[in-house]
Amino acid sequence: MASTTRARLGEEVWKSRTDKINAELVTLTYGSVVAQLCKDLDGDYAEVNKQLDKMGYNIGLRLIEDFLAKSNMQQKCANFRDTADVISKVGFKMFLNIIPTIANWSSDNKQFSLLLDENPLADFVELPDDGKAQGELWYSNMLCGVIRGALEMVQMQVDVHFVSDILRGHDTTEMRITLIRYIDDEMPQDDE
Amino acid sequence: NASTNPPAAGAAATAPTVVDTLSDEEATREDIYNRLENLGYKVGIGLVERFSRDRSRFTDNLDVIKFLCKDIWHLVFRKQIDNLKTNHRGVYVLTDMTFRPLIRMSAASGVPAATKAAPFLQFPCGVIRGALSAMGVNAQVTAETPGLPGAVFQITTVNKNPSG
Lengths: 192, 164
Description:
Strand content of chain A: 5-15%
Order of helices and strands of chain A: HHHHEEHHEE
Largest sheet of chain A: 4 strands, antiparallel
Oligomer: heterodimer
Structural class of chain B: alpha+beta
Strand order of the largest sheet of chain B: 1-2-4-3
Radius of gyration of chain B: 19 Å
C-alpha cells in the first residue's frame, strides 16, 4: 500500500469510524494521572517514567485490536519502513488526530524517530519546577508503552523511548523506535 | 486477611480501631477509590476553569447544577443528563439512563452489576465534585448503578444557606 493511500485511510478512519472525545478532557485526565504518579512516587521520576510506560504497554496490548478492527488493514507490512508509515499515518491519526513526522532512519532500517510537532497530551503543561523534572521526567512516556505493547501483539519486539521533549526546553519532541526482532510464531508445547 | 487478629479475641482485648475492622481488601479498595475520585476532582476543576470562562455569572446553585447537567455532562459524556431531581434543600439527584463509561459493560450472571460498576463511577464522581467546587459549591457526591448501563448520582451540597 502506498504512503498516500495510508494517509487517506487514516483520514477516513478518523472521520467516520472514531468515537471522539474532547481533547481538553484527555489532556486534563492524562495530566492528572501524571501528577498523581509524581506525588505517589515522591518525585522519583525514573520510576514515574517506568510506570507510565507500563500503563501504556497494557493499553497497547488491547488497543491493537481496536486498531485492526477499525483500520481493516488487508495486508501485512512488508518491512519495518511500512510499519513506521502505518504507525504514523493511520495509528496516530486515528487515535490522537496527529501525524508525527518519520525521520532519522538508521542505515540498517531498524531504527527511526517519530517527531511530534504537536502533542495533544502536553497542551498547556509545565513540568514541576523542582530542578529535577526538567532533566528526568518524560511526560508523555505512556505513548512509548502503547507502541511497544501494540507492536508486540503483531509480533514485533521493539524498544521505544523519548530522546527529546519540547516540555524540557528542547527544539523537538522525538521518540526513538528500534526493532529488536520479529517474534516467531511459537507452537505451544505438546500441542497436537 | 490472615494478618488480622481473630475477631473475638481482638475485640475483647482492645477496642478495635476502624482500620482493624476493615479487612485489608476493603482498605485497599477504599484507597483506590479515593485515588480515582481525586484524579477526577482535578479534571473537574480544570474543565470548569476552561469552559465556564465565557458565560455569564451563575445566579444560584440550581444554575450551577444546570450548567453541570448540560454543558459539562455533554463535554465529558457526550450527552445531556436524562433526569434531574431536587428536594430544594441542597440535594440533587442526576439520572443518566445510558451512562457512557458503562455502555459496553456486561456483568456475568451472579455478580451484581452494582459491584462491578462501582470502580468506574469514582472518577465521574470526582469530576462532578471538582466541577462544582470550581463554581463555588461544596458538595458530597455519591453514585450507584440501578442497572447497566444506567447511573444515578446524588449530590448533597454543603452550604451555609440551607435553602441554597
